[in-house]
C-alpha cells in the first residue's frame, strides 16, 4: 500500500512539472497593478472622449485587447503552457470573431 | 503491488495527446463559450441603438459604479492565481484563504450586479421595455450566471479541501477552476468596454 502512495507521489511530480515556469506570487501582484492601471486609463479616457475625437475608440479597443491578452497569457498561463492549448483557444476566439464580424458587416452595422 | 501502482499512475498521466484530457476539455469548453458570448455581445451591438423609446444606455449607466465592479472582478482574478500558487506549494491554509477571498469578490460582484439591475428596473428599464433592455439584461445576466457558477465551484473546491478530498495534485483542480474564473473575467473585460464605455450613437441618445 505504501508503494501505491509513493508512486502516486511521483505522478504528482509529473503534474507539478506541468506547472513549472508559472509566474511567482509577486509577479501575479505586479500584473494585477498593470491591469488595474489600464482599467483606470480606460475609465479616465471615457470622461475625456469628446477631447480625444477619433482616437477614443481605437485607444479604448487597444486597452481592452491589452487587458485580455495579459490575463490570457499570464493568469491563464498560455504563455507558459503547451502551445496546443493556445491553438484550441485561438480557434474559438477567431471562429467567433469572424462569424459575428461577418454578421455585423452583412447587417450594415458599420455603414454609418 | 508496484506494477499496479505504475498502471494507476500511467492511466492518470499518460494520454494519447500527452496532455491532461481534463485541461484540454476545459480549453475546448472555453473555446465554445467564446461563441456563446460572441453571439450575445453581437446581438447587443446590433440592437443597442435600435430602441424606439427609452430608457437608453446614457440614461441608466453609472460608469463610476461599474468601474468599481470591474476592479472587484480583477481583484478576484489576482486572488485566484494566488490560490493556485499556494496549491502548487501545497500550502493548503493559504490556498483555502485565497479561494474564499475569490468567492467573496465574486459574491460582491454578483451582489453589485443585482443592485444595478434593481436600480435600472426602478428607472423604468426591464428586460421587455425595449431592445436595449432585452439585449443588455440577457448579456450581463448570462455573465452573472457564469460568475455564480464559478462561485459554487470555488466553494465546492474549498469544501473538498477541508474534507481532505482533493486529489494528490491539489493544484490541478484549482487550475481548472481558475481557467474558468479567468475566462469569466476576460468576458467582463470585453463587456465593460463594449457595453458600458462605448457611447451610443448620437441619434439614440
Summarize this entry quickly:
Chain A has 112 residues and is mainly α. Chain A has helices at residues 2-18, 25-47, 49-52, 56-75, 83-106. Chain A has 2 domains: 23-80; 82-112.
What are its keywords?
heterodimer, A: 112 residues, mainly alpha, flat, disordered N terminus, B: 205 residues, Four Helix Bundle (Hemerythrin (Met), subunit A), elongated
Rounded to the nearest angstrom, the distance between the terminal CA atoms of chain A is: 72 Å
Helix content of chain B: over 70%
The biggest beta sheet of chain A is recorded as: none
Indicate the low-confidence ranges of chain A by residue numbers: 1-17
Mean pLDDT across the residues of chain B is 90
How many beta-strand runs of chain B? 0
Helix tally of chain B equals 7
H/E element string of chain B? Answer: HHHHHHH
CATH superfamily of chain B: Cytochrome c oxidase, subunit III, four-helix bundle
CATH topology value of chain B: Four Helix Bundle (Hemerythrin (Met), subunit A)
Strand content of chain A: under 5%
Count of extended strands of chain A:
0
Q: Report, as a whole number of angstroms, the end-to-end distance of chain B.
A: 74 Å
Outline of chain B, from the CA principal axes?
elongated
Question: Which spans of chain B of ≥5 residues are poorly predicted at pLDDT below 50?
Answer: 1-11
Radius of gyration of chain B: 21 Å
Q: State the major sheet of chain B.
A: none
Overall tally of domains of chain A: 2
Quaternary status:
heterodimer
Total tally of structural domains of chain B: 1
Q: What is the succession of H and E elements of chain A?
A: HHHHH
